[in-house]
Specification:
about 350 residues, about 65% helix
């Protein structure tokens, strides 16, 4: 048995030794390349080391073109200090060609990896849909059960994949990515979702705009898709007059137009009121403006208010002390308003 360290220095040396021993065989803490970190920084975290090593060891294998990776690296090393370049026009042309090839390769690999991960995630969604059903059959609360058995932070993202997984055969279309598939799902009605292959039916009818050599930004995709969906909904309701600029502003706020929004738009349009002002408030409030009241809804609210008043009036008439606390002036004002309403209704009916 080895002796315990007898000093602060020996303790540090022992800790360093333990860290080095925790590294995989043949891996040393010292960097073997200028792009490597010193593994002493993470050596006590085996999971992180295991994650990092394939990254540090990659020389273009993942890219599928080690020669191109070598060329780009050499170019960056040679021209890292751009201020010293004698013939910038020539170097710029070389850089442009190299960047075009490199970007295309990266985009294809990135989207391929995303598609594969998306396939795994959708299958994960299928698995958790089964688990959720089993949890419910066991008379347990799904959210509570998940938080007790898994990381609660993963639930929100997982629920997206569980939602996708409920669409039949959606795993066939994993290459289109989570965000695009979610946007397609939002456009499917209940009848379409009952089809054996609803995504295929959607693609046959609408097509899809996706170029894996160029697209990499999920946020941009979500934004552009929201614009397209909102525009489609507005046009379907005869609201083509709402400008593209306004539709863009709505999407930038992350507002997904609901049937309630569209109903309010049409109510305002039919009544001749200012639709642009309402939409501005909609954007300012993130999609939650003051509800639109129609004559019918106002009449219903008036009736409910009067019903409550009549109940209170009956209570006051049967309670002398309660009645004595009421303000006669208020009662007279109510009486006058009722008389005015009665006169207007009589004139309208004549």
């Amino acid at each position: 048995m080895s002796k315990k360290p007898s000093s602060k220095k020996s303790k540090v040396d022992a800790q360093k030794g333990n860290k080095q021993e925790s590294l995989p065989e043949g891996v040393t803490p010292e960097p073997q390349d200028e792009e490597h970190m010193h593994l002493k920084l993470i050596a006590d975290n085996k999971a992180l080391v295991k994650f990092y090593l394939p990254v540090s060891d990659d020389d273009g294998q993942l890219l599928g073109d080690m020669e191109l990776e070598s060329q780009v690296k050499a170019f960056c090393d040679q021209y890292g200090n751009a201020s010293t370049i004698d013939k910038p026009d020539e170097v710029l042309e070389e850089a442009k060609k190299l960047a075009a090839r490199y970007t295309l390769k990266i985009n294809v690999v990135e989207n391929s990896l995303r598609a594969t991960i998306n396939k795994y995630r959708i299958r994960q969604g299928i698995l958790f849909n089964i688990i959720k059903e089993l949890v419910r059959k066991s008379k347990l609360n799904w959210i509570d059960w998940f938080k007790e058995n898994f990381d609660a932070r993963e639930l929100r993202s997982l629920q997206d994949y569980m939602k996708l997984a409920r669409i039949k055969n959606i795993i066939r279309y994993a290459l289109f990515g989570k965000e695009r598939l979610l946007q397609i799902e939002r456009q499917l009605d209940d009848g379409q979702k009952e089809l054996d292959d609803p995504i295929s039916a959607f693609l046959e009818e609408n097509g899809i705009d996706f170029n894996p050599e160029h697209e990499t930004d999920d946020q941009k995709l979500r934004f552009e898709t929201d614009i397209a969906i909102n525009r489609q909904k507005l046009n379907g309701e005869g609201l083509e007059d709402i400008t593209d600029e306004v539709v863009n502003d709505i999407a930038e706020k992350g507002i997904y137009l609901t049937n309630g929004h569209l109903r309010n738009f049409n109510l305002l349009k039919d009544s001749g009121e200012d639709l642009s002002e309402y939409i501005s408030k909609l954007i300012d409030t993130g999609g939650k403006p003051k509800p639109i009241e129609t004559p019918d809804s106002k009449a219903k609210r008036f009736k409910n208010t009067v019903d409550r008043f009549l109940n209170q009036a009956d209570s006051a008439l049967n309670d002398v002390q309660y009645l004595g606390e009421l303000n006669l002036e208020i009662i007279q004002r109510i009486t006058e308003k009722i008389r005015q309403i009665e006169q207007k209704l009589e004139s309208m009916n004549n």
